[in-house]
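W.,

You were right to be curious about this one. When I first looked at the sequence I had no strong expectations either way, so I just let the prediction run and decided to look at it fresh. Below is the sequence, 264 residues in total, followed by the output.
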Amino acid sequence: PNAIRVAFGDVTDARKLERALADRSAALAEAERLKRDFVGNVSYELRTPLTTIIGYSELLERSGENLSERGRGHAAAVRTAATQLARSIDDVLDMAQIDADEMALDLEDVHVADLLTQAAERWAKDAEAAGVTIKVERPDDIGLIRGDSKRLTQTLDHLTENAVRQTPAGGLVTIAARRALGEIQLQVTDTGRGIPFHVQAHIFDRFIGRERGGPGLGLALVKALVELHGGWVALESEPGSGATFTCHLPEAAQGAAGHPELRF
């Protein structure tokens, strides 16, 4: 009888433990859903008025003699700030989508040369204002990569923006690509201040870049997007001697799922 009572007791405890674990798992899933809904709803509410602000500031910039040169400068500053905020909101939404394993890659054949050239063109104005030169380097036969054009463009934009911001007047930012061992390497190098060694180990963590401006999601998102393609990102930097970020991408994206280490 004693043995039977012990056996029943063991089974009961095991079932209680199973129920507790199931309840905890359900609570965590619900918390994750509520977080995603909150981020999505708040971001949408912020995005809507920003679109109006950007639109009217662009109209003011094009108003010609109806607005003074100083006024047009103020309108341009408003547009720039609103556009940057809109991009930051998009980054938050993208990261939340990756966290939920809901971001699917739209794979196609992408011309690598076009990726580099278009990135340089998009950031040419900002670089010129900062007194920085942007250069593109690639072999003539760099060819195609199988990937998501929008996400690869987003990756290069974040890396190029980061490089331009970190490079002093008279400096150089190089956007490059090369093939090596079945992969395409996209590389952005700057001649800026470099990254301290104690920061390098955490450079792809979320919010680590806050002191550099922005919400600090840019490099974390770069890492996540490259990993979605089945690749990885490397950093080389000496303090005071600039930095090089290299995205190692397979020639054909593997479409990896979101990674648990990227969670909030």
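Here's what jumped out at me. Residues 107-262 form a domain with the Heat Shock Protein 90 fold (CATH 3.30.565.10). And, maybe more interesting for your project: Residues 146 and 252 are 5 Å apart (CA to CA).

Coffee later to discuss?

I.
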